Amino acid sequence: MPEIKVFNGERLKAARIYRSMTIAELAEKSNVTKQAISQYENDKGNPSLETLLRLISTLGFPRDYFYEEDKDKVKVGNTYFRALLTTNKKDRLSQVEKTKVLSRIFHFLNKYIDFPELNIPKVDFDGNIEKIALQVRNHWGLGLEPIPNMVRLLEKNGFIITSFSTEGESIDAFSQRQEINGNVYYFIVVGSDKNSAVRRQFDSAHELGHIILHDWSLDLEQASREEFRQLEQEANQFAAALLLPKESFIRDLIYPNKLDFYVELKKKWKVSASAMVMRSHQLKVINYNQYQYLMRQISKRGWRRNEPLDDEIPIPQPSVLKKAIDVLITNDVLSGDQFIQQLSNNNLSLNKSEIEILLGLNEGALINKNQSSPILTLKRNPNYIEKM
User: What is the DSSP string of 136-163?
Assistant: First the structure.
């Protein structure tokens, strides 16, 4: 006899959080009472077909999604957000839920694709962030030269990166540690609505700072504002030290008091003028009064939001997840429709458009064939395709 599927209240809660809704907001938009939604989420009742259709229409998830169980053992660590203090909790929880879904898609792809292995330096955080940044550079063989593409560097070393809208100015980027069936993965999401290459460079380095420096078992919701500020400050210091190594950056500071000179340096170091001014002060190349003068000039010129060259330097784009899909489709392992069906067979029913958003794909990518990728290869004898 076919298995009788039961409504999963946890999936309803997950979908609601994913869409950044409270129970009251979902109730209002779906015309279903708050009491009923609470009962459904706690598995104390099942929605009628009519009610379920209202919830599906409001939340935008397929019907099967609400009748599936998560079989993989996923242990989610902290999610570190760029600008923790200004991030709304409801928005944070939404991004956390999206990353959980992303991780399940990645875990499915990992059955077929040989992704780069995680290559993360092991360091003891003794408070010396300059030293740790140099250890990371040495571990990855970077020397003291500029890092042209921080996103690609992280992807080559096994970090899973994607880009989608974080729906607001307060969330630039965030990172999440997960253990899936005993294996550790780090996911980094960079906001697709932040159109600045240097901002993305710094955000990516900032998230790496959290990953390397900070405790992933810490309950951030219970941390004080002072603790938040310290975490952010340390991640910022790490990003600056990694992107602008002391020895070679100081050597380039020929005119440290001239703001326009930092724009020229921006072409080389792919770091904002304001971040370089702050780094110059940190390294004691300029004094406090000089630093304050330059920062006032930045504000006066309107560079707090947009700097010169922001519209000229190409924005680093995540590519590994896109290329993984390319490999599957181009090698006729799975078509876009088969990929979606196989996800559903593995208890993750999602709409095609949702998958494209989470993986940072172009619209329609799951039905179009693209060129294959030389940095990703299929695993030998992939026998994971279930009979259609």
Answer: HHHHTT-TTS--S-HHHHHHHTT-EEEE
